[in-house]
Amino acid sequence: MNQNDQNTNTTASTIADLEARDTAWLEVQNKKDDGPLLFNGRPVRIEVRSPGTREALSAQHRQEQANTAKTFAAMRGKPVKETVDDKIAQSADKLTAVTANIDGLPVTATELYSNPKLGYITEQVAKFHGDWANF
User: Fold this and answer.
1) pLDDT, tens digit, for every residue of 52-87?
2) Where are the beta strands (DSSP E) in 74-129?
3) CA–CA separation, 64 vs 22, rounded Å?
4) Four-residue CA torsion sign, 49, 53, 58, 64
5) Helix, strand, coil percent values for the chain (each to nearest 5)
6) How large is the angle between the packed helices 84-97 and 119-129, nearest 10 degrees?
7) Residue from 4, 1, 2 nearest 135 by CA
8) Mean of the per-residue pLDDT values for the chain?
9) What contacts 26, CB < 8 A, 6 or more positions away?
């Protein structure tokens, strides 16, 4: 029985049997979403940390703190100028934190998620990370 089969059983004998795995692999799809994304003939895969990991929770906390600071600044009458680059960097920071490994692309996680022209990959990772069933 593989790990995925264990996670889908309805009978658990310990609390640990109910826990999500720490990571899972996303098989990245091409822009048309009709097959795997290939780079130099190899499929691209990204190992994503589950929402329950320390890295994911820390990234979410940083994002929430930044949003709270902006809200309080606006309430005090100090408008926060946020640029498109700031939004890209904030999103890239969170996804970089939840990316354990990139297989098949010669880029870092920050480079990948900071490139708006690769947004179709960024969206796949964000969606995958947001679904507990993947872990």
Assistant:
1) 999 999 998 998 888 888 888 888 888 778 888 988
2) 99-103
3) 22
4) positive
5) 50, 15, 35
6) 50
7) 4
8) 91
9) 45, 46, 47, 48, 124, 125, 128, 134
Torsion angle defined by CA atoms of residues 35, 3, 61 and 125, in that order, rounded to the nearest 10 degrees: 0
d(CA 40, CA 114): 22
How far apart, in whole angstroms, are the C-alpha atoms of residue 102 and residue 25?
A: 9
Q: Does 1 have pLDDT greater than 50? A: no
Amino acid found at 80: V
Q: Which residues pair with 29 in a beta bridge?
A: 36
82 CB neighbour count, 10 Å cutoff: 11
